[in-house]
Amino acid sequence: MSSPRSSNWFEANPRKARWLIAILCLGFLEGMTRILVGLDLLPYREYPTSRVPRYWAYVDPVVGIWRYPNTTLLQQEYCLDAKLQSNAEGARDIDRQKHSAAARRFVVLGDSFIEGYGVNAEDRVTNLLEARTGIEFLNFATSGGFGTIQEWLLYQSRVLQYEHTDVILFILPANDFEDNDPDEFSASVYRPFLRPEGDGYEVYYTVPWERRYTDSRAMSTVIKNRFDNALYLANVLRWATRELKGGLSKQRFRTEDGDYDNHSPEDLRIMLYALDQLIRAAGERRVWLLTVPTARDFAAARRGEEFRLDEELGAFAARYPNVSFRDLLPDFLNDAAAHDREFTNYLLECDNHWGALGNQVVADWLQAWLFAPPPGTDVHSEAD
Predict the structure, then answer these.
(1) Distance CA 305, CA 158 (A)
(2) Would you say residue 26 has pLDDT above 70?
(3) What are the residue ranges of helices labelled H in the chain?
(4) Which residues make Cβ contacts (< 8 Å) with residue 238, sequence separation at least 6?
(5) Rounded distance, CA 53 to CA 217, Å?
(6) Of 188, 222, 217, 221, nearest in space to 205 by CA
(7) pLDDT at 279 over 90
(8) Which ranges of 162-264 would DSSP assign to H, the alpha helix?
(9) What are phi and psi of 56, to 5 degrees?
């Protein structure tokens, strides 16, 4: 007696059927993922597919990390939709004339917060101030682990060519001390550090310029990025994996202390030496120093914690007749209390950099501080 015939193709071809079902399921998930991304319910990130970086790279022999000139980077991912564009100098700014007859002209130094990471140029602090006052604010801030040593050397090597009356330098205690520490970086990364020499310090690099890490991407990375750009499901899974790892890392290293005092006496001496050199290079120009808090500093201050860094930087600034210091932490605390806000309200939705509100309120405070009448001035004298 012969065996009964299979009733359908799936039963007759079980192995092929399993593959077909798997492909159909993946196709369904890919289609659903594309729909959810299109509705902004899931993130999608465009990964670079060039072997050579086109925006930030180790292209400056003095400071290391900088930008290629006249280059555009589109930050398009979950909660980020910003266009970053460099000028002929490699700064994220419009092209500027080196000579100026203006009564006041500011140059601004800092890291990714001041560069405006994740926000369009018109929404960041310097652009807001320039639009309000009509005074130029030349922005030389950059991402890439930019510390106080690099800001001093960038000021000497690039910024001083541009005529200006005022220098604004933003200090981020959360990582500026680390950015000055060679132990925090691979020896192949080209960036300046300081080491003791006589009564002061000398600048040195851990790798010769010719042997520096050039940021060239491996072909395997380029292939993976192209695959993840084309397949939305892989793209979202890559994001989810990164978020999971980041969350676990934050839990592992979470501390109740703020970032302001997370430095050693030697860390502070190196920072102050770099600041002193910048102030000397500025000559008689006004220098404005500001500290930028993080969420941990905000939380610690709300618990009543006091930071010695305020006193240290305040005492340092008081040594110079042309230097002023301001800590932005009290401003954030006061604004949050007045408007019933949390620190996250000032940040991007999925990133710890300032969003539109953070940039706006910092611009408000700076405008009032930078253009306040000198002490003893009678602001009503002309009206009287």
Answers:
(1) 39
(2) yes
(3) 9-12, 14-38, 112-115, 125-133, 148-157, 173-179, 219-230, 232-253, 265-282, 295-302, 308-317, 329-339, 356-370
(4) 45, 228
(5) 8
(6) 188
(7) yes
(8) 173-179, 219-230, 232-253
(9) -80, 135
- Cα 101 from Cα 109, distance rounded (Å): 22
Which class would CATH give 103-217+255-370? alpha beta
Each residue of 338-365: pLDDT tens digit? 999 999 999 998 788 999 999 999 999 9
Counting Cβ atoms within 10 Å, is residue 294 exposed (0-12), middle (13-18) or buried (19+)?
A: buried
The vertex-184 CA angle with 183 and 185, nearest 5°, equals 95
| Tokens standing for residue 54 | 């086109």
Confidence class for position 254, pLDDT limits 50, 70, 90: very low
- Rounded distance between C-alpha atoms, residue 93 and residue 137, angstroms: 9
Tokens of 203: 């600048």
Pairwise CA distance, residues 71 & 92, whole Å: 9
Measured CA to CA, the distance from residue 146 to residue 228 in angstroms comes to 30
Judged against a pLDDT cut of 90, whether residue 297 lies above it is answered with yes
User: Looking at residue 379, what is its pLDDT?
Assistant: 40
Whether the predicted model's global pTM rises above the 0.85 cut = no
CB 67 within 8 A of CB 93: no
pLDDT digits (tens, 9 = 90+) for 13-22: 778 778 888 8
Using one digit for the tens of pLDDT, what is the confidence trace for 129-182? 999 999 999 999 999 889 999 999 999 999 999 999 999 999 999 999 999 999
Q: Alpha-carbon distance 75 to 47, whole Å?
A: 10
- Residues facing residue 286 across a β-bridge: 166
The residue with tokens 């999971």 is 244
3-class secondary structure, 11: helix
> What is the structure's pLDDT at 212?
86
The CA-atom distances, in angstroms, between 316 and each of 48, 166, 235, 309, 319 are 43, 18, 48, 10, 6
**Domain boundary assignment for the chain:** 103-217+255-370
Question: Crossing angle of helices 356-370/329-339, nearest 10°?
Answer: 120
Q: Which two tokens stand for residue 252?
A: 């592992």
Q: Percentage of residues in the chain with pLDDT exceeding 90?
A: 62
